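Glycolipid-binding protein
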Amino acid sequence: MDLLAMPSAASWTHVGVRVGFEVLFVDHHRLRGRTSAREGASTWYVGYQIDVDADWRTRSVHAVNSTASGDREVVLERTADRWTVDGVARPDLDGCRDVDFESSAVTNTLPVHRLPFVLGETFEVPAAFVQADDLSVIRIEQRYALLSSDEQHHVFRYESATFDFECDLMYDASGLVLDYPGIAIRDR
């Protein structure tokens, strides 16, 4: 699947489970974004910077969040398939090549850029999952399968066994999510 170059900026409106907004700025192999939302009784802001290598594997992540209980910060680093979180080795994340933010529609672009998707073939894509309210990091089990692809759009079946969740994600030609059902819709 050939992807076009990503735009230098994009934005999403959160819909469904939360109300909010996300912006993304792209500079070569760096994704910088900000997202803020209200979900139930919780409100939060998360700022992130994700550095990826030439093959779209996450190298490092810096995130900050603000909630009613204060501000937090977390740093994730990956060498080979080993991760540290705030300098502490996390063997439970071994084998993960991506980061996935609970607060973001952007991070679902990482495996789409990296993997050689073939129509109907399923790929297991575990990730280091950063939770929005406290920036805690857990392992998330995920699967992606390319359902359809043309010059304008790509549709993937996304499944997370960790959260017992599945949906069809629509991407644009650059590999950014256009529609994440119940989560976000791209507006720019």
